[in-house]
Design brief:
about 375 residues, alpha/beta, Arginase, Chain A, nine-stranded mixed beta sheet, two-stranded antiparallel ribbon, globular, His_deacetylse_dom, histone deacetylase activity
Length: about 375
Amino acid sequence: MELQTFRLPYLAGCRYFQRRSILRRQFCTKRSGFCISCSYSLDKDPLIEKLTDARVIYSVAPAMGHNQEAHPESYLRVPAIVSALEKAELTSKAMNQASEQGIIYIDGSGPTYATATTFQESLVAAGAGLTLVDSVVAASNCSQNPPTGFALIRPPGHHAIPKGPMGFCVFGNVAIAARHAQLVHGLKRVFIIDFDVHHGNGTNDAFYDDPDIYFLSTHHDGSYPGTGKIDEIGHGDGEGTTLNLPLPGGSGDISMRTVFDEVIVPSAQRFKPDIILVSAGYDAHVLDPLGSLQFTTGTYYTLASNIKELAKDLCGGRCVFFLEGGYNLDSLSYSVTDSFRAFLGEKSLASEFDNPAILYEEPSTKVKQAIQRVKHIHSL
């Protein structure tokens, strides 16, 4: 089936880099504006063979002008990840920087800010995710083992609501990509996994009555923004296609492995998705300043590996990750880099970063109770 053409205003021009089976799409800025009109059909792209040969495709939209001094959602996040990838020899160097702009505040949206470039840079971030969906779908039409996509973008998106920005988020990047997958590529059933430490209330609300988009969120119970209770399961035709699993403070690697096996896998198997999208938040790491869970770099390696395999089993390998939270630059960069290793089938290097001595006993009884309640409500 010939892919349809998509065009997004201010969508940046694309450049490809391939090294060790990673293909990168870079989104560039020019002067005060952005590269315009990325309008083409990927099945006519002369680099489609590189798409099918690659095992990871990633886009970078760092939003360097979207920055407020001392704010956790800072312009240092994406460059820290890229630097770690470069140090691990997983990519080539390419990064554009924009000059610092003035700051404005968005009232009533949590501690969310905007700069003079935020709107345009947010469009680029959303567009980066869309072109990754395009690329992964194009590759899946030519290969039984398409690459996994990862949008290294900011501002994040899973808190953004129809009324506007919220919780560091401006546009709902994953929600936009989900609709794009449906409307442009005819992928009817979209399965969204959100493992950020905070509930993805924006994505949750966007598809609360939609039976064709399954939203599954694990998050710290009681954390910002206070939504995502177990009994929030969808409404009307969408009842049963929203699954929220709030985890007690201190939940970590053991808890998440159990959740994946007993909740995520059976939910996805029953739903039978055409594509899997992931809100990949790294703020559940034990070192993160805004979270109260104790995931490790190894937890994220396992999640990345398992989700990749789940997509391979259920939907032809079509899977795209979207960066959400993660505010300790060291744990963020190490964890994303180890996620890339998982996508590539390489050995985890989490042991070089993780320190088991700082971990404490997980609340296994409370976690089991939460899992059993979810399984009962959703008949898993």
